[in-house]
Amino acid sequence: MKASVFVGVSVDGFMARLDGALDFLPADGGEPHGYEEFMAGVDALVIGRNTYETVLGFETWPYAEKPVFVLSSHALAKAPDGARMEQMSGPPAQIAAALAARGIGHVYVDGGITIQGFLRAGLIQRLIVTRVPVLIGTGIPLFGATSRDIVLRHVLTRSYASGLVQSEYAIVAAGGDPGGASHGEPSP
């Protein structure tokens, strides 16, 4: 199974304010920058509880009818009508194996803790990071501590009229959990 990240961050590397607010991101995603095309290529989403609770506050469910797997061992608020949400818990490798066994070929991983866990486990193959032209000083970082380097291969960088700068990377090698996933060259 392939796992990708598509995320917006402040130039200083924060994906949300400390309270989870996303008010520094462009309203409605800003100008088109590949999100719709990215979403068309994924089978499902894996998100953390905090991300789930944040998107429940949006006016509309942002994932249409894509299956959304929310990682949490705590009870979750009910999903909106029409949303395909399922709760799961366990380590990233177990989640990935369960989804692959269900025939899911490509997942979009979102949420700080979830992204960090999947990266540490060596389960992410593609990172698309869009930097928003703002410094917020403090917040929830996109990347946390790692026990080893995670080597990336730059694929391309695009800039947009609004000042957004988007870089795409392939994961070349990552330090995963002992006995974990393969860490070879990712497939395109």
TrEMBL record:
One Pfam match, given by its short name, reads RibD_C
Q: Which domain of life is it from?
A: Bacteria
Q: Which residues form the Bacterial bifunctional deaminase-reductase C-terminal domain?
A: 6-163
User: What protein does this entry describe?
Assistant: Dihydrofolate reductase family protein
Source species, please? Dyella mobilis
